[in-house]
Amino acid sequence: MAERTREQYENSETRFSVVVHRTPTEDFELENASAQAIEKIIEGNNLVEHGFQIEEVAWLKQKDKTLGKFASLGIWFDTAEGAEYILNNGLLVGQRKHHGVDTVPANTSGNDAPRG
Question: Which residues, 6 or more positions from 48, have their beta carbon under 8 angstroms from its beta carbon?
Fold first, then answer.
């Protein structure tokens, strides 16, 4: 495993992650999932009014697999409070509340994020 230099560590951005299991994929345009999903999640969960920002989303799946009707969705926030809000309140997607939310390692940089 490669080690980070002190400068790389100090310049890395701390992000806070949650995983929402059994997220309905039909509610998202799968070809442009990231930007469209971020917008839909922010609007549907009133995250702007709470001051929370999503930095990235990704479907958590093996690269050689296609998405089914439901999948696990990773969501990376810029603050612990944003992640905590989803953990406490669930995720509203398509007028349905999803409470199958788990935490994943909270201190990740953009280089560590899995890609869907």
Answer: 42
